[in-house]
Amino acid sequence: MTNVTRTFVRGGKLNRAVDDVSLEIGAGKTLALLGPNGAGKTTLIKMIATLLEPSSGRIVVAGLDIKSNERQVRSNIGLVLGGDRGFYLRASVQENLNYFASLARVSRRRRPAVVAAVLDAVNLADRKRDAVETLSRGLRQRLHIARGLLSNPPLLLLDEPTIGLDPEAALALRDLVRSLKSGGHSILLTTHYLYEAEALADDVAVIIDGRIIARGAVTDIANAGGIGNVTVATLTHLPDTLGNSISQLAGVRNVNSEQVGGQRLVTVSWEPNRDNEPQLREVLATHAPLSVVTRPATLEEGYLALVARRRMTIG
Ligand SMILES: Nc1ncnc2c1ncn2[C@@H]1O[C@H](COP(=O)(O)OP(=O)(O)OP(=O)(O)O)[C@@H](O)[C@H]1O
């Protein structure tokens, strides 16, 4: 998409829900779109799915401009919004998929094979005769993905696919998303679970107030938030003045401490390429640290630093 903007009028004021966004997703790649509530993620996904028209800008899916090829583009996209709606609850899994396959213009002749293939892909074949209302939330979410796969679309749009799932069901769903990716689908994923984005995505884009403020690998997001590596020190106790002494070291961006079990974890975020574990060890030496480990910032640490930095610059 190139220079895409979508405005809404609210209370007589023009609100730019998506503001001049340009993004591309490579074939077979997964892009995670992250951002706070109301940042513009769903608006962006709805525009790609042709459910909402951009106010300006251009969106191209598999080489086709969505404005002039709406019907064809729809069959190139699998939209998975999830939740409890979207199925006939008393009808069976198979009946639902047959119906949605007809809407997706899968020919009557090909329908049985296509429905069998998507059921296999999401591992639901053994439940095909059961009414949808008997499926757990995790299995319903698989059914949503099966529905999105009916036209074998090159692009899948997954809006918070694991929301509300228990940890085991969420893990199984992440495995399913990985297998779709290795099957060649490009995926645009929105999620508020940062470890999920880190586990699944090749690339991350952060949207705030309708604008993409950072895009790239996890390190790029962290660097945009002003942090590079992070050192975690484990201590048996934390003297009052220690945090202050650490924050005075060159290159320190932020210091946090928390109690975990009987231990104190001190987390030191360093500015990009300015980590200095030896100097930190000197400060910690008289407090007998149990361990000191330096590693790259996680996506969660990078994202939180980026959002905080953004709020500081506009607030
Ligand atoms: N139909 C609409 N009419 C008016 N304003 C809207 C409409 N849809 C979205 N908005 C506004 O556009 C902005 C972006 O909303 P959007 O739902 O895209 O955010 P989001 O990033 O998906 O949020 P969440 O993480 O909460 O799902 C918000 O300010 C929202 O109030």
From TrEMBL:
Membrane-related topology note: Peripheral membrane protein
Residues annotated as domain ABC transporter: 2-234
GO BP term (any one): response to antibiotic
SUPFAM superfamilies membership: P-loop containing nucleoside triphosphate hydrolases (SSF52540)
GO molecular function: ATP binding; ATP hydrolysis activity
Record's keyword terms, sorted: Antibiotic resistance, ATP-binding, Nucleotide-binding, Transport
Major site of localization recorded for this protein: membrane
Subcellular location field: Cell membrane
Pfam family, one: ABC_tran
This protein's GO CC annotations: plasma membrane
InterPro entries in the cross-refs: AAA+_ATPase, ABC_transporter-like_ATP-bd, ABC_transporter_ATP-binding, P-loop_NTPase
Record has ATP-binding as a keyword: yes
Ribosomal protein found in the keyword field: no
PANTHER family: ABC TRANSPORTER ATP-BINDING PROTEIN, ABC TRANSPORTER, ATP-BINDING PROTEIN
The protein's name in its UniProt record: ABC transporter ATP-binding protein
